Amino acid sequence: MQKPHNGFAVMTIVCANIRRTYPPSKTDKQQIQERGATMAYLNTSAAQGSTFGFRAAAIFQNIATRIRQRRIYNETFDGLSALSNRDLADLGLHRCNLRQIARESAYNATH
Question: Can you give the pTM of this predicted structure?
Answer without folding.
Answer: 0.52
